[in-house]
Amino acid sequence: xxxxxxxxxxxxxxxxxxxxxxxxxxxxxxxxxxxxxxxxxxxxxxxxxxxxxxxxxxxxxxxxxxxxxxxxxxxxxxxxxxxxxxxxxxxxxxxxxxxxxxxxxxxxxxxxxxxxxxxxxxxxxxxxxxxxxxxxxxxxxxxxxxxxxxxxxxxxxxxxxxxxxxxxxxxxxxxxxxxxxxxxxxxxxxxxxxxxxxxxxxxxxxxxxxxxxxxxxxxxxxxxxxxxxxxxxxxxxxxxxxxxxxxxxxxxxx
Length: 254
Description:
- The chain contains six helices and 13 strands.
- It is of the alpha/beta class.
- The chain is globular.
């Protein structure tokens, strides 16, 4: 029976983001939620458990305020959770997150069979944490998967590529990042939420973990996208058509 780790991230709910007076993004009244892509990873872990048995472990890293994400994740089915928590763990870049999660896996979740991640996070969508985590752990990684199964000590995955559908296999333990169309995540009920409060959670502080690398990137500011329209009118005679074509050429549209 497999031990499956499912990683998730507590991200800003974009529906609460407002535009500031100077074009900046206003996060003053935002709420947070588990990234939609990670909900697919959790659901797929639970589907595999329903078929093969075993145990599903939820894993995340974040600030103390992200504690309620643990209850949300556990209400979706996992048996236990691991939470690397520190005020400095907010706004981590993918390289830092992957190193942090790898440290938790190596120290506290060994052995394991399969790690499931969303293809990217709902905020950065860098698509790096899963492959980087696999590299830290020295295990194979399969990305952009839309169907996954376990057979005879291997993970069998169907992944979308430009030419169509590719079927690949990797020896366990392995890591898989899943696409949103792999499943439809469940909506936890009241009973699920109540049961989540009784499930074990191991919280790991910064001093319990190896130092994480310094960030390679720094976010200086975030601004809203602007859409401007020229609203230029053209006639239908030959001269106007030529003027229209010249305007398109100036905009590099043709």
